[in-house]
Amino acid sequence: MGSRVLSLRLDDELLERIRQHAAKRGMSVQDYVVRTLVREDFDERFQSSVDATERLGGWGDTAAEAEAADGSPAAHG
Question: Where is the composition biased (Low complexity) (predicted)?
Fold first, then answer.
């Protein structure tokens, strides 16, 4: 797998906050940002998979569970 360069322009306050978060984890700013982006990408792909599974009816009666949890009528498609 190759690598490429991504250049970002950040204001001083945001960069300092990122530096602090990275330092707390013993990471470089670059590693912290890449890890955060990878985690966000995974979260989005995972949520898409969950949504697709629910649309296909793969995880029980989630509409009924939602209704029971908040009292609102469940949408039936």
Answer: 61-77
